[in-house]
Amino acid sequence: MKSSKIMHPIAVRLMHWTNAVAMILMIMSGWKIYNDEVLFGFLHFPEEIVLGIWAQHALQWHFLGMWILVLNGLAYLTYGILSGRFRRLFFPISPTEVVREAVAALRFRLKHADLTHYNAVQKSLYVGVILVVALQAVSGLAIWKPVQFSFLVSLFYDFQGARLAHFAGMTAIVLFVLVHVSLAILVPRTLLGMLTGGPRLDAGRETPMTPSQASNP
Amino acid sequence: MPLRRPFTSLFRPQRGPDQTVLTEHRQLIETIDRRKLLRGTLSLGALTMLTGCNISDRDAVQTILRAVSGFNDGVQALLFDPNKLAPTYPASQVVKPPRFNAYYEIEDLKPVDIGGWTLELSGLIADKRPWSLERIYALPEQEEIIKHICVEGWDYIGQWSGPNLRDFLTRVGADLSAKYVVFHGNDDYMESIDMPSALHPQTILATKYAGEPITDPFGFPLRLRTAVKLGFKNPKWIRAIEVTNSYSPGFWEKQGFNWFSGL
User: Fold this and answer.
1) Which of A19, A169, B10, B259 has the fewest C-beta atoms lying within 10 Å of its C-beta?
2) Signed CA dihedral, A176, A182, A187, A190: sign only
3) The pLDDT of residue A114
4) B-chain residues within 8 Å CB-CB of A28?
5) Touching check for A58 and chain B: CB below 8 Å?
6) Average pLDDT, chain A
7) Structural domains in chain B?
8) Looking at residue B135, what is its pLDDT?
9) What is the pLDDT of residue B230?
10) What is the residue-averaged pLDDT of chain B?
11) What is the value of pTM for the model shown?
12) Residue A148 is nearest to which of B56, B79, B258, comparing CB atoms?
């Protein structure tokens, strides 16, 4: 059986890992920027996990990372919508299924046999994190240009509200990354899939190919 | 007999390169090569994996980051709308006194000796006669109740008044098509801003806070207050204003902060 369609085409894999690098830059430099004027007195990020010796270096990284994140993100959204990938993989999302599968996942009973289809928990998490990153760009723009884009600031009540929303968005993304990376390590086939392309899409759902088979034409 | 006579070209050096130059600077050339090699091995992905991440100030990385910062200056200049006004607030929300900030602690403040103080003018300005404080006070005042936003992330609402900078620059015959307005502070603090931001209607030379002359910690006798720049772009204790076409980085830009820093 011959097919050129694989689970993660090269474009998706490139965009995924570009995004991963940009996210690490943004989160670690963001922590350093936060440390200069904390929102919560009890929370300072340790110097060992931040990017930039001084706040200005962290700001330099943040305003480099933003271009990578936004340009890559726009390319990903365009690709996802135009190729039908989002429609095929993310939708529909059934709320009852989300609840049922979330409970199953917490009991470690969620089946993960077919890599070419996402379960309802995966669907809602992937769609959710895409929305959070988009919102992060909006609150980031409000903080960067509170006069030019004052209407964006008003979405978050005021400037400090925008900072708080930006912090909350970071927290949500970090939690997503923790779950995402843990599951990728627990089910290494998914991690390999994002490196090599994963199974072919027309492979039978009952007998999914292993990543090594899929990568050998 | 050679088929072709050796000819002398205008573009061919008469003699080979002087080998002593290479020998003398051998050490330097080797250093450059090592640095190139080091630069070549650095990758963005590998950089983030380093613990501590004390990589930001290495020469090569800093060159890239500052180039991006310069690109962002240009993007911000494009985003800047000269007619877009910053939000203003009622007097009831004004914080008194304003928040102190400088590159040193408030205890180390050296107040301006007003006896010998004049505002000096230089560069592309027709009338460079210095201004006394009395003459500045006599100019029409404009009041702005605006937010001061610091690059660190804090903000407060302040009530500033003084002559409008555009009016002042027009009055002294400054070249309004010049690129930069530079402010020299009494504490060797220097900051430059772009002309469009200097001409913004909410950019003033503040002499008063909440209706009273600004006190020493906050810039007496004269400071810049613009609603369209981050706090550090508002120098205090101004002693000279210069209009120029040549860029010079201010105190914080030299440390690596972004020059335009527009809001």
Assistant:
1) B10
2) positive
3) 78
4) 48, 53
5) yes
6) 88
7) 19-78 (no CATH), 84-254 (3.90.420.10)
8) 95
9) 96
10) 85
11) 0.82
12) B79
Q: Is A43 on the interface with B (CB under 8 A)?
A: no
B-chain CB neighbours of A24 within 8 Å are 48
* Residue bearing tokens 């990568």: A215
A71 within 8 A of A21, measured Cβ to Cβ: no
Query: Is pLDDT at A205 greater than 90 in this prediction?
Result: no
- The DSSP annotation for chain A comes to -----BSS-HHHHHHHHHHHHHHHHHHHHHHHHHHHS-SSTT----GGG-S-SSHHHHHHHHHHHHHHHHHHHHHHHHHHHHSSHHHHHH----HHHHHHHHHHHHTT------TTS--HHHHHHHHHHHHHHHHHHHHHHHHH-TTTTHHHHHHTSSHHHHHHHHHHHHHHHHHHHHHHHHHHHHSHHHHHHHHH--SBTTS-SSSPPPHHHHH--
- C-beta atoms of A28 and B53 within 8 A: yes
A71 CB within 8 Å of a chain B CB: no
In a domain, residue A69? The reply is yes
* A48-52, B56-60, B221-225, B247-251: segment of lowest average pLDDT: B56-60
Q: Which positions in chain A touch B79 (Cβ < 8 Å)?
A: 145, 148
Q: Which of A63-77, A186-200, B178-192 has the highest mean pLDDT?
A: A63-77
pLDDT for B111-156, tens place per residue? 888 888 999 999 999 999 999 999 999 999 999 999 999 999 999 9
Q: Output the 3-class SS for B190-233.
A: EEEEEHHHHCCCCEEEECEECCEECCHHHCCCCEEEECCECHHH
Main-chain phi, psi angles of A127, to 5 degrees: -65, -40
At A128-139, the pLDDT tens digits run 999 999 999 999
Q: Could you tell me if A76 lies within 8 Å of chain B, comparing CB atoms?
A: no
Domain containing residue A77: CATH number: 1.20.950.20
Q: Give the model's confidence band at A50: pLDDT under 50 very low, under 70 low, under 90 confident, else very high.
A: very high
Q: Is residue A5 part of a domain?
A: no
Which residues of chain A are within 8 Å of residue B255 when distances are taken between CB atoms? 54, 56
In a domain, A207, yes or no: no
Judged by CB atoms closer than 8 Å, whether chains meet at A159 and B147 is answered as: yes
Task: For residue A36, tell me if it sits in a domain.
Answer: yes
pLDDT of residue B139: 96
Instruction: State how many domains chain A has.
Output: 1
